């Protein structure tokens, strides 16, 4: 019996030592800011990725934080509260209701505010970096891209879709993956003709695979989501019909390339020490 207790105590001690090493162990140091093994483990589990990818994402995060500080980027408490109020409104809740909803999921509202602030600082940094991107995206360049890649723009003549509508975003989140409407959700079968449809909706359906749900949209009636049952026929819209979509796509590609180049150069110059 004594041996069993000694063995159990030894196992507990080993596990405690391992936990302490996970929490306190340093995986890397970026601009004098440490990244712990525990952070790497947490992100790896959260994103279902490998340790190398998790570490690279955390290094990118530390580089962003350093740049935010170097460039003097900031947000005010008013801006943060205004963003949180907007998020609450998008979810069909008052600020008080939204706070209760966040805390009911086991998240400290202070931690939530800190994450919102971090996201807003990141957005300002990205705008700063990408301010020069997209200046080479012209109508002529978009037209040339269209002519060279017409097969990319083949879309449906019509689509069979299901409109799901609810009073709250959470009700539609719960509906995802289910075709029979849940309590509080209305469902309506529709046929969408591409050429006569709202251009924004037509683009969303065109970019949603058969058997998938679209994102959720806030409307005057509440919240909408679509399920794509089938797409019928094939049609290539004219350049004028999709010019804005092509220009926007090229602009986003330019932004992404600018951002990647920026952080690749930043990492090459930064003090990054990989320890584990």
Descriptive tags:
276 residues; alpha+beta; 4 domains; four-stranded antiparallel β-sheet; three-stranded antiparallel β-sheet; 10 helices; 7 strands; globular
In the sheet with the most strands, the strands line up as 4-3-6-5
* Major sheet size, sense and barrel closure: 4 strands, antiparallel
Tally of domains: 4
Large-scale geometry: globular
Task: Give the mean pLDDT.
Answer: 86
Name of the level-1 CATH class of the largest domain: Alpha Beta
Unreliable parts: 1-23
List how many beta strands DSSP finds: 7
Helix content: 55-70%
- The percentage of residues in β strands lies in 15-25%
**What do we call the CATH topology of the largest domain?**
Chitinase A, domain 3
Any guess at the CATH architecture of the largest domain? Answer: Roll
Q: How far apart, in Å, are the first and last alpha carbons? A: 40 Å
Class per helix and strand makeup: alpha+beta
Query: What is Rg?
Result: 25 Å
User: What is the count of DSSP helices, taking H or I runs of 4+ residues?
Assistant: 10
Element order: H for helix, E for strand: HEEHHHHHHEHEHEEHE
Describe this structure in words.
- This protein has 10 helices and 7 strands.
- The longest helix is centred in the C-terminal third of the chain and has 31 residues, at 239-269.
- The protein starts with a helix and ends with a strand.
- The chain folds into 4 domains: 26-72, no CATH class; 77-135, no CATH class; 136-153 and 239-263; 155-235, Chitinase A, domain 3 (Roll), CATH 3.10.50.
- Helix 4 (77-90) crosses helix 5, helix 4 (77-90) crosses helix 6 (109-129) and helix 7 (139-148) packs across helix 10.
- With 276 residues, the chain is α+β, with helices and mostly antiparallel strands.
- Mean pLDDT is 86; it is low at 1-23.
